[in-house]
Design a protein that fits this description.
This protein has 193 residues and is mainly alpha-helical. It has a domain of 132 residues: Alpha Horseshoe (Serine Threonine Protein Phosphatase 5, Tetratricopeptide repeat), CATH 1.25.40.10. 57% of the residues lie in helices and 5% in strands. Helix 2 runs antiparallel to helix 3 and helix 5 packs antiparallel against helix 6. The longest helix has 16 residues.
């Protein structure tokens, strides 16, 4: 390459580097650039986690629950939610530990009792699960059909250990408390052919 061409190329590069691209100057409020300022109030991790659980995104829900724990502390709602997410992910030991911690935090928290019973059933401990479901049912004053059904399944398992119900978490009802108590991801009903 000749010296003239090299100088022309260098001059072209310098001129193009100095030209404006037509955009706003740096820090001038470009709508696509992050400003570092919050635009609104963030939704708490517990609410985000509940929405993700409803959508079947259990791993993301677990992350949101951990964020809620970091923000608000290890409340009974957060511990129970973490346990329920672990349960849905098949992490039975972790689910049991978190749900027991939730019960230690509030012995009258019905969803934690029920979900602990579900974890125990999945772990093959129907006798302890039935005791836990009875406690949940008593604390709930018998108002939840889901807890009653879970208790019925546990008692059937005790009476007939060869009970043909498949060991699948979707047969049991997880219960959550938030803006009211409702069933969470119960077993889908089969459509008649």
């Amino acid at each position: 390459m000749t010296l003239g061409r090299a100088l022309a190329l260098a001059a072209t590069c310098l001129i193009s580097a100095c030209q404006s691209t037509g955009g706003l100057p740096l820090g001038g409020g470009d709508p696509y650039a992050p400003t570092g300022r919050a635009r609104g109030e963030a939704v708490d991790g517990l609410t985000v986690g509940h929405r993700l659980m409803e959508a079947g995104e259990f791993d993301l829900a677990l992350r949101a629950y951990y964020r809620a724990a970091a923000e608000t502390g290890a409340t009974v709602d957060v511990l129970s939610a973490i346990g329920s997410a672990n349960l849905r992910l098949g992490r039975l030991g972790q689910a049991e530990a978190m749900l027991r911690r939730a019960i230690d935090a509030d012995e009258r928290f019905v969803p934690a009792w029920n979900n602990l019973g579900v974890a125990l059933m999945e772990m093959g401990e129907p006798a302890e699960a039935s005791r836990v479901f009875r406690t949940a049912y008593a604390l709930d004053s018998g108002e939840s059909d889901a807890i009653r059904e879970n208790l019925r399944l546990a008692l059937a398992q005790i009476e007939n250990p060869a009970y043909d119900e498949p060991k699948d978490i979707t047969n049991y009802k997880l219960v959550r408390r938030g803006y009211g108590e409702y069933l969470l991801l119960g077993a889908p009903e089969a459509e008649p052919l």
